Amino acid sequence: MNKKELISKISEKIHEEAKDAGKIKIMHLCGTHEDTITKYNLRSLLPDNIKLLSGPGCPVCIIPDEDLQKVFHLIEKENIIFTTFGDMARVPHNGKSLFYYKAKGYDIRIVYSIFDAIKIARNSSRTVVHFGIGFETTMPSTALAILDAPENFCVFSSHRYFIPAMEHLISLGVEVNGFINPGHVSTITGIKAYEKIKKYGIPQIISGFEPEDVMLSILKLIKAIKRGDAEVFNEYTRAVTYDGNVMAQKVMDDVFSVDDWEWRGLGVVPRSGAVIKEEYSEFDVVKVFEDAFSDFVPVEDKAKKACRCGDVLRGIITPLDCPLFNKRCTPKDPVGACMVSFEGTCNIWAKFGVERN
Ligand code: SF4
Ligand code: SF4
């Protein structure tokens, strides 16, 4: 059976299983899953009573404007080299972005890994500040880099723990009957990390990224929902184990402690922020440049008033419900973070040409 036949076979099974299932909402939590779903048009293979929502799955999209503004503030005040991943450099705020600063002659460098930023620091006498973003997927690399960093290197930690955000979404009253959990995050955290979500009675499945993985995961979730079974299932057995990557967990625990931090669209999420521990404070930008941050005041971006990123990230609307989608807000000239990032739902929908019928 080829891939196409396999997917349509699973689709048939989903239709059969969904007949007497009532209305079901399934939320996935990963930019790469949204990419697969939209690229292969999987939503069109589901019956009308099964809705597939996208949640806060992109590490760039969920970083609040305040973090971005703090970075801009630092760059304007201090003679530093600032390193960042490419997507993050395009997120706008009040007409500025990290690319704007680069064009103005500030020393902003795009890196593909934090270890490139370390290399830059080793070859420079100036301080290199790295924008540490991402969930449990990238946090272990940042922790390892901090353990081996030269004196002139520090991190602006904007890393966030993913699983507290799932609990927070539920507490905000998001109506979902099942979750498709992020595959890469799960390789680090393991299945065990999701056990605490079980008490909310919502089944979860960790899924791989091929279209047949996602379709199988949907089928399995529908069956579990019908049975009233709130287990954590693992469809991504080729990469995810029960305990996860224990070494990576240890290095994260050694370097980071947790705090209540804000997420774009979700507000303050308890125990979701990755704070660099006191013993590594010489690598924490917040401590190293304490004076520079002392007069920081966040400013609202009025142009973003109509942007509905927050609602997209909570699965309340799809990009098509945003009046700016593919009009004022495009991948070339984005208004909100969800249109900037390659893992952002708006960007993915625009890229694959999803339009109103
Ligand atoms: S970091 Fe990995 S798991 Fe998380 S959203 Fe991106 S692709 Fe998905
Ligand atoms: S289309 Fe643009 S403005 Fe609208 S929610 Fe998405 S990113 Fe925000």
TrEMBL record:
<dbReference type="GO" id="GO:0005506">
    <property type="term" value="F:iron ion binding"/>
</dbReference>
<keyword id="KW-0408">Iron</keyword>
<dbReference type="InterPro" id="IPR042243">
    <property type="entry name" value="HypD_1"/>
</dbReference>
<dbReference type="InterPro" id="IPR002780">
    <property type="entry name" value="Hyd_form_HypD"/>
</dbReference>
<protein>
    <submittedName>
        <fullName>Hydrogenase expression/formation protein HypD</fullName>
    </submittedName>
</protein>
<dbReference type="InterPro" id="IPR042244">
    <property type="entry name" value="HypD_2_sf"/>
</dbReference>
<keyword id="KW-0479">Metal-binding</keyword>
<dbReference type="Pfam" id="PF01924">
    <property type="entry name" value="HypD"/>
</dbReference>
<dbReference type="GO" id="GO:0051604">
    <property type="term" value="P:protein maturation"/>
</dbReference>
<dbReference type="GO" id="GO:0070025">
    <property type="term" value="F:carbon monoxide binding"/>
</dbReference>
<comment type="similarity">
    <text>Belongs to the HypD family.</text>
</comment>
<dbReference type="GO" id="GO:0051539">
    <property type="term" value="F:4 iron, 4 sulfur cluster binding"/>
</dbReference>
